[in-house]
Amino acid sequence: MEKQFSSQAYLDMELLRFTTAGSVDDGKSTLIGRLLYDSKSIFEDQLDAVKRASLQRGNEHINLALLTDGLRAEREQGITIDVAYRYFATPKRKFIIADTPGHIQYTRNMVTGASTANVAIILIDARNGVTEQTHRHAYIASLLQIPHMIICINKMDLVDYQEDVYEGIKKQFNTFAARLEVRDIRFVPISALKGDNVVDRSNSMRWYNGATLLHLLETIHIASDHNFTDARFPVQYVIRPQSDQHHDFRGYAGRVAGGVFSKGDAITVLPSGFTSKIKSIHISGQEINEAFPPLSVTLTLEDDIDVGRGDMIVRENNLPLTGQDIDLMMCWMSERPLNTQTRYILMHTTREARCLIREVSYKVNVNTIERIPDDVQVRLNDIARLRIRTTQPLFFDPYRKNRKTGSLVIIDEASNNTVGVGMII
Q1: Mind listing the pLDDT tens digit for each residue in 76-104?
Q2: If we measure between CA atoms, which residue out of 234, 190, 145 comes closest to residue 30?
Q3: Residue 264 shares a structural domain with residue 380
Q4: Which residue range(s) make up the domain with 251?
Q5: Do 171 and 29 share a structural domain?
Q6: Which of 135, 178, 203, 239 has the greatest number of C-beta atoms within 10 Å?
Q7: pLDDT tens digit string along 121-136?
């Protein structure tokens, strides 16, 4: 039986992914702990464990940062090293949090945690204002095309909740943000330690008329974050049931990376160029009329043509770019420096190829956003503009147009470790 899915209704129910970033001791882990604590998203045994750990450390009050600092080294040093993922829900929305490190040597961890985020929460210590680390975190969020940015000016209790301090930092950040590609920036004055404007409104900052942080996260509009214009369906798996009942079924499974696919749509399969029409769309055993991001579905076609993993199904009149020489911004994630003489494995959507780094144009100073053209030795945590050459054509869009078809991963052939992630320009 066919069922009509509403894209708007689906996306309204969709979970929101957000990442936190800030300088060391800006209070990222405390903020997340406060969100979980005040929204009553902590189990009793978790709370008991944090209470015990807080007493062992000599804290007078519950140290909410311990809810996310899961590594022993993090608890001992009081810093975040790895990306800590946490899940929680309110009656209005579900959330996945990526608590990312503030240290520059963990830039790769921040990129990992932020790569799928809808929202970046950047913390600024009200006593210090905008720093170089703030520039770095905002630049990385902009580079990754995170659609929404919330600037939490934290520790307002330590500056006597002064409005002029908040307004001064807001002006500072807006001056810098004019150089970034971020279309939606919000500001919230908070105290993560005291709970001001995190979940509940602050009685100490009556001059602030905006929403609390949780209210922003619950209501921020993310449905338009997906690309519903350019239809892209990377094929992940070919389904051919081995039974008499389904002997003539041939489906192509994958996740919609862009656009809307409907029954009867004329499509083209890349790289073959074969054309056909969509016969049916299936999800969880049901047949539906349309598929859109980020649904994982199975498509069947009217014609029996050759389609395999790594191919891409697109609309006839809306083709992606195709090429083997590709320019991209790359975050290098390996302790072994980039080697232009080495051949790497490349993963793009569901397609695997080999590639060579043909040219390093420049590196970026992530604190000042200045180009470094003279130093082209790309090392751990460096961000650089590169040109690569692939052994077979890729079907892609610029990253700013589609984060799914515009991103790729570089893997070392010898170790099979991920050594770089790239955003196609």
Answers
A1: 444 334 566 788 888 889 998 887 765 55
A2: 190
A3: no
A4: 232-315
A5: yes
A6: 135
A7: 999 999 999 998 899 8
